[in-house]
Structures are given as C-alpha cells and as structure tokens.
Design a protein that fits this description.
This protein is of the alpha/beta class and 95 residues long. It is 27% helix and 18% strand. The protein has one domain.
Length: 95
C-alpha cells in the first residue's frame, strides 16, 4: 500500500499522472478524483479501483484530474495503469 499526503508541496500522485503523459493537453474538461470516489477515508484497494476508473474516463476525453487537498493521506494500492491524455492538477489550478 502506498500513502500520499496531498498538501501545498509537490503532489506525488499528480506528478505520476502528469509525467506519464505527453503533456500536450492545453484545454479540456477537469474533474475531481473525489467525484469518482477517491477519498482519504477509503481503503487503499477501493481508492485504487476508483482512481483507475477516473484515469480511464479522463484518458478518452483528454481531461484533467483534480486532486483535492486533504489533511489525511489518500491511500492507494499499487498497480495503477497510467494512460495518455490525462493530466493531474492540484484543485487550486482548475482549468
């Protein structure tokens, strides 16, 4: 299990998603990962499944996934499949 603390520093989850892409997304939709059920209080397994759904959804749309800051870490199991056309952003940088 991997735990990431999302704060005002660099966002490890955001960077993983961001660096896995072509970085050529200029405009498009954006949605919070919490809309897919990725929440700090969830188990790592549930967050893994929900984050993969968010990545799959964003990939076909060229969308940004917003990571809401939290006092608690987002626990996520490994094995996430990163895809092209997805960018992760801190929620403060909504498009």
């Amino acid at each position: 299990m991997v735990k990431w603390r999302i704060g005002h520093e660099m966002y490890p989850l955001v960077m993983l998603i961001y660096l896995s892409n072509t970085l050529s997304i200029v405009a498009g939709e954006s949605i919070s990962i919490q809309a897919f059920g990725v929440r700090p209080e969830n188990s790592a397994a549930v967050n893994k499944e929900n984050l993969q759904k968010a990545i799959d959804w964003a990939s076909v749309r060229g969308a940004a996934l917003l990571v809401e800051p939290s006092d608690e870490a987002y626990a996520v199991d490994g094995g996430i499949l990163l895809k092209n056309n997805v960018v992760g952003l801190p929620a403060s940088q909504r498009r």
